[in-house]
């Protein structure tokens, strides 16, 4: 509806109605939503890193964020085990890191960070990727079931950023750089 109470017709060009969305149709629709790219990391015995774009700010008071992780992903066990996680928000020149941490053939554990420039988070010890736009360190406060994923709610323990950088985003099935 518009501000004067009149309804606005929805565009129909290219619209394909379906009784129920399929995984393919849902993926196609979600590809139209531009998202930032992060690498979520967890410290400890199950140390791991994973590219993720299912990440969001939740609250400033208290400082909360969420990330959604498949229950079959190695990252799921790493977060549950350590009860902490970190988020590195990737810059425009870090597409190689997004691709690396999305590649399931990389080494397991701390060895996957051997070829990556990183520092341990001062609050959690989780790897923080050097050169990122910003970093958050979080303690896991809640976990919710969300279909085939868990929604991890984290209280932000520390946050830092590097100003005046370009961002890396994902839209339409491809990486893009944004000033």
From TrEMBL:
Key words, A-Z: Oxidoreductase
Name assigned to this protein: Putative oxidoreductase
Disordered: region residues: 1-21
Occurrences of domain Flavin reductase like (ranges): 30-177
GO molecular function: FMN binding; riboflavin reductase (NADPH) activity
Lineage start: Bacteria, Bacillati, Actinomycetota, Actinomycetes, Pseudonocardiales
Keyword hit for Oxidoreductase: yes
Pfam families: Flavin_Reduct (PF01613)
Domain of life assignment: Bacteria
């Amino acid at each position: 509806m518009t501000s004067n109470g009149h309804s606005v017709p929805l565009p129909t060009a290219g619209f394909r109605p379906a009784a129920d969305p399929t995984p393919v149709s849902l993926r196609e629709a979600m590809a139209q939503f531009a998202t930032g790219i992060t690498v979520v990391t967890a410290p400890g015995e199950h140390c791991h890193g994973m590219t993720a774009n299912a990440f969001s700010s939740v609250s400033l008071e208290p400082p909360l964020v969420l990330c959604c992780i498949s229950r079959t992903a190695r990252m799921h066990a790493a977060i549950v085990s350590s009860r902490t996680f970190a988020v590195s928000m990737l810059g425009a020149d870090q597409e190689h890191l997004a691709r690396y941490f999305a590649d399931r053939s990389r080494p397991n554990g701390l060895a996957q960070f051997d070829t990556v420039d990183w520092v341990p988070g001062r609050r959690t010890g989780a790897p923080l990727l050097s050169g990122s736009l910003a970093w958050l360190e979080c303690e896991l406060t809640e976990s919710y079931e969300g279909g085939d994923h868990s929604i991890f709610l984290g209280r932000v323990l520390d946050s830092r950023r590097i100003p005046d950088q370009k961002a890396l985003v994902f839209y339409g099935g491809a990486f893009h750089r944004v000033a």
